[in-house]
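Case study 2.
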Amino acid sequence: MRNSAGTRTKVAIAGLGAIGTTVAKALDAGIDGLELAAVSAANIEKHKPWLDRLHKAPATLPIEALADAADIVIECAPSKLVRSIVAPAVSRGKMAIVLSVGALLANEDLIALAKTHGGQIVVPTGALIGLDAMTAAAVGTIHSVRMVTRKPVAGLLGAPHLVEHKIDIEGITKPLKIFEGSAREAAKGFPANLNVAVALSLAGIGPDRTTVEIWADPALTRNTHRIEVDADSARFSMGIENIPSENPKTGRITALSVIACLRKLHAPLRIGT
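Prediction:
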């Protein structure tokens, strides 16, 4: 994404939780060719003290106005808001960076909308490694993808799957498998937890053929993911342990992944697919 000389790409952020706040501060500190133009949050007054301390305070706007104020809109909000954030951006031919990637499965027409209007939906690597290898393998034939996720109990509490099936994990004393199924089913049952599984599936063989296992583990303090891939080009496995942010459902590395994605936009050297 190149700009004419002297102009900067304007970035807006929807949602100022752990991820959005970290990304906003990084943009304010300086990312080559970019500027923080606008933000939106459910309770913007809560964030005023630190927003006012930025070098250049961004405009505070309702979600639907972000696409008019920026070239790139970053979604860092609850998954139910994805459509209201992404649709205005891509229908104007702009870029939407999506973190709640699981919500794309319920809004797949957004991809067609982006294609029609010359927009683009970008899913950062987030809390997962190996998406480059997966996208490369997908050019050939991938036979199977399996992901096993283990999370601390606090990071899973309140998940719709647990509520619907009346699964109580608060008092467990040993690891408990709480789900096994497709990435699509995982996204519905754990919308705040399994964006990584959906990103993996979209990079590879799709949400219905990607299998996911989820464990609640009272001994863990980190979110862990193990992925096994069998393809005609390679057989590979990946493992990562993510340190949670102040939001136990989200790893710290997710915000850093967004920052890395933004840095690539104007970088003279880009590493990775």
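The mean pLDDT is 93.
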